[in-house]
Design brief:
Length: about 160
């Protein structure tokens, strides 16, 4: 229980990240990026990096202020970011399934139709790519890679100065 208490902040921010992810997916759906404006999805979805990075910044600042009393090393910050990443990665299949089955159940059909009609792929290729299994797998692979990279970069700015 003591170990879990040491990572309470990271768990909280991992849960916040999952919530932000679901809100972003809902926003995409409401903006028609999963249906009528699907042609803009590939561009607009990349803007999720902004709130994603912001969550990591706030998580590591929170850890620095409340756990390390305002002084944190690069390593401590990076490890904290890795723990957030583990939480986010563990939650990513759940957030992906909520997105697929609750927020936007027609997404795959719409993407398949768009991919074929726009000439980006044929029916078989589109169906092989746009499906639950593939998206969950991509999320489980992509999430830790981006989390590690984000943690490494954000930690450069979060770490305390030497004379602090």
């Amino acid at each position: 229980m003591i170990v879990l208490n040491n990572y309470r902040i990271e768990i909280k921010w991992g849960l916040i990240f999952a919530g932000v992810t679901l809100l972003w997916m809902l926003l995409e759906r409401l903006l028609g990026l999963h249906s009528t404006n699907i042609d803009k999805h590939v561009i607009v979805t990349n803007f999720f990096m902004i709130p994603a990075i912001a969550v990591y910044v706030y998580a590591l600042l929170n850890k620095k202020k409340y756990f390390y009393n305002g002084i944190i090393t690069y390593k401590q910050s990076f490890v904290s970011g890795l723990i957030v990443t583990i939480v986010v990665t563990l939650l990513s299949p759940v957030t992906q399934l909520i997105t697929i089955y609750v927020i936007t159940p027609d997404f795959f059909n719409n993407m398949i139709k768009y991919a074929v009609e726009s000439g980006h792929s044929n029916q078989a290729e589109a169906e092989a790519y746009f499906n639950t299994g593939n998206y969950v797998l991509e999320t489980v692979i992509f999430t830790p890679v981006m989390g590690i990279l984000t943690s490494a970069i954000v930690s450069i700015f979060i770490k305390s100065k030497k004379n602090a």
